[in-house]
Amino acid sequence: MSRFKIATYNVNSIRSRLPIVIPWLKENRPDVLCMQETKVDDARFPVAEFAAAGYHVVFKGEKQYNGVAVASLKKPQDVFYGLADDGPADVARLIRADFPGVSVINAYVPQGRDRDALQFIYKLEWFKRLRHYLERSLTPDKPVIWLGDLNVAPENIDVHDPKRLLGHVCFMPEVREAFAAVKSWGFEDIFRRHHPGEAGQYTFFDYRVPGAVDKGVGWRIDHILATAPLAKRSLDCRIDLRPRLMERPSDHTVLMAEFDI
DNA sequence: ATGGTAGTAGAACTA
User: Fold this and answer.
1) Does the nearest atom of strand B lie within 7 Å of A26's Cβ?
2) A242 CA, B1 C1': Å apart
3) Which nucleotide comes closest to A16 if you measure CA to C1'?
């Protein structure tokens, strides 16, 4: 049995965030760091900087938007890109990396833009497609981790103003139901397992709210979920606010978990 | 407070 440390971080441009990401990796040495919104095409992904820190990295991105990456101390056994159905592949939103004893699904769920936008319909569909992906390629009795910027705050305690935000695309009842339908495949929210009922624990703070971290004006929209065999072996899950308080931060911060596997 | 900032861009879009 060994300790497995995994983290998720929406970097909002990997090239802009290297001064935060690389020192964080060196200090925390997670086995796996999953990133979203890398905002870079594959030819320009900063592979060398990760290698210099001792990390292998797999990624799929595009020039300006989206992009996902998985950095790991050990090279994954297998890597799969996108939802792999007959819809848009969205390779820059989903990357699955299989390691010995655990499959890791790193997702950047579509934000949805606006409740009346086509993008919102697409977001709801995306959760359904992910559920189908799980059903046909994995089983919940095996160790699976689903993590990333899932663009949904599951409960009232996961947002700073549940009344006002009820119509927001990351908090609307329809979105929470869509998320719950994926979760019900066989996932447990690992952060909640270790912090039941704890309000005010956020992973995202809008740039436009001055002093958002200090004021507690945030959202818990980044998540680490795991199937039962892993959940019961989880040791800890916590939000590291320090990256959000540094110079030139992402608007998200790091969420990390540890397992005995 | 339906404002505000930051990213990639090199104007306007996305979050």
Assistant:
1) no
2) 28
3) B7
A156 CB-to-strand B distance under 7 Å: no
Position of tokens 């441009």?
A13
Structural domain boundaries, residue A189: 3-260
Which residue's alpha carbon is at the shortest distance from the C1' of B2? A164
Query: Has residue A1 got a pLDDT over 90?
Result: no
The domain total for chain A is 1
Q: Which spans in chain A are helix H? A: 14-28, 47-52, 118-137, 173-183, 190-194, 212-215, 228-231, 242-245
pLDDT in tens, A114-154: 999 999 999 999 999 999 999 999 999 999 999 999 999 99
- Domain with residue A96: its CATH number is 3.60.10.10
* A26-35 confidence digits (pLDDT tens): 999 999 999 9
Residues A157-166 pLDDT 10s: 999 999 999 9
**Is A149 assigned a catalytic role?**
yes
Bridge partners (DSSP) of residue A236 are: A258
